[in-house]
Amino acid sequence: MSGVFFNQADLKPHRSRYGLNAEPDTAADAQMTDLPALSRHAPAWLEAGARALSTDAMTGSQALERQYPSLPMGPGRAERRECEYSRRGPVTLIAHCDVAQGTVVAPSLGPTRTAEDFVTQIARTVASAPEVLRWPYVVDNLHRHQSAGLVPLGAEHEGLKEDLGKKDKRGMLKSMATLAAFLSDPTHTIVFHYTPKHASWMHQIAMWCSIVVRQFLKRASVTSVEDLQARVLAFIHYCNATMAQPFQWPYGQKPLQV
Questions:
Q1: Which residues of the chain have pLDDT under 50?
Q2: Taking a C-beta distance cutoff of 8 angstroms, is the pair 146, 195 a contact?
Q3: For residues 233 and 109, is the Cβ–Cβ distance under 8 A?
Q4: CA dihedral angle for residue 241, residue 193, residue 257, residue 101, rounded to 10 degrees
């Protein structure tokens, strides 16, 4: 009888979905406006000497060596991947997606994704293109993207000589709020644009990382961490040369598509 009742009432007690009860957030509203505007302006900025990058780390990429080779597809039969494998070690990819062009810029591969790793990556990327006049970065809200180590880097690039303060005590290093305010200052040449919380779908590098997972990692079989690193870099080079194009950004009309 209960089944009849559920059917009549169109109730499905065996199913559930995640949801989010969020309070109104004016900062998130501003970010929702800022990021599509950044995407629209990125081509013009590129011509004017600025390079807008969407930046994040892809962690947990395991170098997996499958026990036996995959069986190729055939008529009426999908490819079959061996489910038994050996783990050869983890790799973290830190990469930037050029918002205006869709290319991946200055990728780095290593074992960790610490705040120090992120500062080193930003410094290396900026140093690799001294002709670029401005660097707008789109990042999420993880603490390593608002770390104290980024402030001296930004201050040096601005030529600021003033006292930056002391971490957790005073000045621009006093708190996460003061750090974020300095790093997101629109007058700076290295400026960070933060995505709203719970809105990773607005982060274009996340879309690019999904391409790596679906088109490469899902079927890969590698013998070592070094083998995986070399093949990831080769995949990035191939994508930049043959597939790269700006992601569509019809926010407010339909979801992003690759």
A1: 253, 255-258
A2: no
A3: yes
A4: -20
DSSP per-residue codes, the chain: -HHHHHHHTT--TT-----------HHHHHHHHHHHHHHHHHHHHHHTTB--EEEEEEEEEEEEEESSPPBPPBTTB--B--S-EEEEEEEEEEEEEETTT--EEEEEEES---HHHHHHHHHHHHHH-TT--BEEEEE-S-GGGG-TTHHHHHHHHHT--S--EETTTEETTSSHHHHHHHHT-TTSSEEEEEPPTT-GGG-HHHHHHHHHHHHTGGG---SSHHHHHHHHHHHHHHHHHHT--PPP--TTTS----
Amino acid at 149: G
